[in-house]
Amino acid sequence: MIKPQWQQLVNREANKDYFQSLTSEITKQRSSEIAIYPAEKYVFNAFNYADIADVKVVILGQDPYHGKDQAHGLAFSVQSGIKVPPSLVNIYKELSTDIKDFNTPKHGCLTQWAEQGVLLLNTVLTVQQANAHSHAKLGWETFTEQVITELNENNDGCVFILWGAHAHKKGKNINQDKHLVLAGPHPSPLSAYRGFFGCQHFSQANTWLANYDIQPINWHLPIEI
Fold first, then answer.
1. 63 is catalytic
2. What is the mean pLDDT of residues 182-207?
3. Which is catalytic among the residues 17, 51, 54, 63?
4. DSSP per residue over 66-123, as a string?
5. Which entry of 33, 137, 158, 216 is 20 to 30 Å from 102 by CA?
6. Rounded mean pLDDT of 152-156?
7. Which residues constitute the catalytic centre (predicted)?
8. What percent of the chain has pLDDT over 70?
9. 159-163 sheet: strands from edge to edge
10. What distance lies between CA 74 and its chain's CA centroid?
11. Per residue, what are the HEC states of 139-194?
12. Which residues contact residue 172 at a Cβ distance below 8 angstroms, ignoring those fewer than 6 apart?
């Protein structure tokens, strides 16, 4: 269930023309032969774990995985039993060099991060099967801009980890007197070697949280679930 503060934001945006146009188009596509990911019940999954005041870290990606059964509403995460996608393979590689004793899981489910206050958010929340960025420009960017604004204004201090050009654009108005902004290349195989590897965003986030007396994130994940 969506947390109360986030639900207020969703309700507020749902009354706006852009959001009604967005949901109408997605409903139309779902009712045709086009497969849309994630499933409808998972579209707002990122908002089910930590409310606005409780978010410690935001990891911002682009749009959901577009393979069958991959996306479940948490950026970069896939459900247990689904092959770990290349971007997440690279995230695990970075974690193995950045976080002491990190052991690479055999799965790609990141819900344990979400439960600790990591908002795993994409700039666009839906996608057509096998068609990356197909729902860019439908209106999701406006919605996620409101999400970032809400956190910027109403969260006492969190870490924004922005990967890739789409995410970087979202960071331009974040108050860096209150929040930490870490920006780098996207972890996809196309760009990870341009500076994602070695970015140490996970340890930097925890150092910042600890300095503000906020419980750091346990980035370790069970090997199997």
1. yes
2. 95
3. 63
4. -STTT--SSTT---TTSPPPHHHHHHHHHHHHHSTT----SS---HHHHHTTEEEEES
5. 158
6. 97
7. 63 (proton acceptor)
8. 100
9. 118-122, 57-61, 159-163, 180-184
10. 6
11. CHHHHHHHHHHHHHHHCCCCEEEEECHHHHHHCCCCCCCCCEEEEECCCCCCCHHH
12. none
220: phi then psi, degrees, rounded to nearest 5:
-65, 145
Q: Indicate the average pLDDT of the chain.
A: 96
Q: How confident is the model at residue 65 (pLDDT cuts 50, 70, 90)?
A: very high
How many angstroms separate the CA atoms of 161 and 120, rounded? 10
CA of 74: how far to CAs of 14, 16, 137, 212, in Å?
21, 24, 20, 26
Q: Which two tokens stand for residue 70?
A: 């991959």
Angle 201-211/86-98 helices, nearest 10 degrees? 60
Helix (H) or strand (E) holding 36: strand 36-37
The type of residue at 196 is F
Kindly report, residue by residue over 10-34, the tens digit of the pLDDT: 999 999 999 999 999 999 999 998 8
For the chain, domains (ranges, CATH) are 4-212 (3.40.470.10)
Task: Judge whether 154 and 53 are in contact, CB under 8 Å.
Answer: yes
- Count of CB atoms within 10 A of residue 106's CB? 12
135 vs 63: CA distance, rounded Å: 8
The per-residue pLDDT for range 161-178, each reduced to its tens digit, is 999 888 898 888 999 999
Q: What is the pTM of this model?
A: 0.96
DSSP 49: S
Rounded to whole angstroms, how far apart are CA atoms 225 and 64? 22
Q: Are 64 and 132 in contact (CB under 8 A)?
A: no
